[in-house]
Amino acid sequence: MVFDETTEVEDGDIKEINITHVVKEGAEKADPSQFELLKVLGQGSFGKVFLVRKVTPPDNNQLYAMKVLRKATLKVRDRVRTKMERDILADVNHPFVVKLHYGELILLFVCVCVCVCVCVCVWRCSNTLCCVSVFKQQLHGKNILFSDGYILKEDIGMGSFSVCKRCIHKATNTEYAVKVIDKTNTDPSEEIEILLRYGQHPNIITLKDVYDNGKQVYLVTELMRGGELLDRILKQKFFSEREASAVLHTITKTVEYLHSQGVVHRDLKPSNILYVDESGNPESLRICDFGFAKQLRADNGLLMTPCYTANFVAPEVLKRQGYDEGCDIWSLGVLLYTMIAGFTPFANGPEDTPEEILSRIGSGHFTLTGGNWDAVSDAAKDLVSKMLHVDPHQRLTAKQVLKHLWIIQRDKLPNSQLQHQDAKLVKGAMAATYSALKSSQPPPELKSIESSFLAQRRVKKLPSTSL
């Protein structure tokens, strides 16, 4: 099979690459639909290596490693080198050189336009490779509709650019949740990629299916049957400081994991922390809705893994990352304050204006006396004050929170009942707090094309015309 020639432009030069399939003698032509993505094995400068399972005969159920390169990050010379690599591996057969089983240059849409890939190379994995807690994933393009596999049911949640509904998988009659995202208002690529990479964590919502009909993206996830964290706490007849510590420990260790991977959630309000079942066990908590989450990237847009961060990320990028991590800790501090005090730290109720709420937040003042505060431990007060510090760079990190005495010495905390305000009042105040924060974010500033990094780089490359 031969595709049409692809014309590429680089630094003013036009070059052509003839994109063709390469199939070794005796091997079949590869197709992305023949492989099931299991998990990410590694990441390089231009793409990732996935653990995949072949789903079609004759080698179905065989594990392979699939190298996927991002077309957007590859220049012409990089694509030529990739083609050369593929051709060399196809011709070489040596016990100490990786064996290429399937290799073809194809245009492949992975994960609903998260990235356009130019090359897929597949190597067979060792039979001794341990594949524990395999992350089964099905990624569907525009030719397969959500309604082909699922029955859509009632609304269970609303977002700024999305709606969450219950749905039923036709083949298994299993209930799931589906987040329907309007692509005209937001790009779900980052959210999908984060869920694909980190959804295997036990306290992060699991992504089951992805569909794209051109206008909307459907993210099928596990159904959160236990409801929102704050709802359950406010409905409990008995909730103690010790239980609050267990809840914060579970959520913070999940946030610490995300931060260690260069991911910031940026929207850790209580409505995005839910129970997967009715047990009320802190380990059944899931962090959901990664619509505002971001991954640490270098100036060229490539993801930065933790081991490369210190040497290759600009200081201002790291500073921004630290700020975003601090915002996550602040959100957890608001949650902790509310669990202990029984009311929110910066809003008295849903009738508070955004200006009033933002003024209190900006001042950094909140009360740690009266009510429940007269009965809780000093360690709790210390932790709250350090998580809600007005300067995000002076707040505790997630790792420091996990090492705080209030967390590690939970068994010594008081087990007395904590009182709380009316549930409707508390939830209204919490909603008002995050609504005020969202309204305070300035709109993006549009600048001239000449001020962009790309335009400035091109100007530098132009030959001088001065005499």
TrEMBL record:
InterPro entries: Kinase-like_dom_sf (IPR011009), Prot_kinase_dom (IPR000719), Protein_kinase_ATP_BS (IPR017441), Ser/Thr_kinase_AS (IPR008271). Pfam families: Pkinase. PROSITE patterns: PROTEIN_KINASE_ATP, PROTEIN_KINASE_DOM, PROTEIN_KINASE_ST. One of its GO terms (molecular function) is protein serine/threonine kinase activity. ATP binds at residues 67, 179. Residues 35-407 form the Protein kinase domain. Keywords: ATP-binding, Kinase, Nucleotide-binding, Serine/threonine-protein kinase, Transferase. SUPFAM superfamilies: Protein kinase-like (PK-like). Belongs to the protein kinase superfamily. This is Ribosomal protein S6 kinase alpha-1-like.
